[in-house]
Please model this.
Amino acid sequence: MIFGRSQRGKPPVEPVTLKILVAGGFGVGKTTLVGAVSEIRPLRTEELLTEAGRPVDDVSGVEGKHTTTVAMDFGRITLREDLVLYLFGTPGQERFWFMWDELSEGALGAVVLADTRRLEDCFAAIDYFERRSIPFVVGVNCFEGSARYPGETVRQALDLDEDVPLVMCDARDRESVKEVLIGVVQHAMTQAADRRRAVPT
Ligand SMILES: Nc1nc2c(ncn2[C@@H]2O[C@H](COP(=O)(O)OP(=O)(O)OP(=O)(O)O)[C@@H](O)[C@H]2O)c(=O)[nH]1
Ligand SMILES: [Mg+2]
Model:
């Protein structure tokens, strides 16, 4: 049990609330992921993709996409009665990245979504979290029609540290997304424990 708080015979406790970011390149499925698991109607800030944006908004691979996140997505999921996650989906397009610093304030960890057809699109998100020592998990969003690669191959292509978890997922599937989110919480806890051990008392 991650938080080790015994429930036996006690009144319900105030849940621990954690903030998790959902990042990754343009159109990789961040808004879809937050919408798939959120138990409240997710807050979205979608704007129509326009003719004017066509030269910079590369929709290849997601041709059915007509909108894009301009500020953030927000959702909530109760993983256990004493553990609630607040999800903040970031905008994928570079011109909205000034939002990221604001959104990452106080975050426990992050999911970096990746699409194997456009892996390079998530490099910037990986760099961002590595530089700030924010624990993250890479979720490979398995769009149908995209080639399936072994996790090890994707890991090498992303030049990921060995201890960064990499999981295959479907951003539209609640159970699949829950697994990814549990992975983020566990990874963040492990890293925090490692850091505590590393600091001499
Ligand atoms: N086939 C398939 N389509 C998906 C999957 N995940 C997302 N989509 C579709 O891909 C498109 C992009 O999804 P979004 O959730 O808007 O992506 P996003 O990362 O929030 O995009 P931006 O905010 O613009 O960066 C949408 O049309 C989704 O319906 C998936 O796993 N499989
Ligand atoms: Mg979005």
In short: The first helix runs from residue 30 to 37. Residues 30-31, 69, 73, 89, 92 surround magnesium ion (ligand 2) (CB under 6 Å). The beta strands are 16-24, 46-48, 67-69, 73-80, 83-89, 109-114, 136-141, 166-169. The first strand starts at residue 16 and ends at 24.
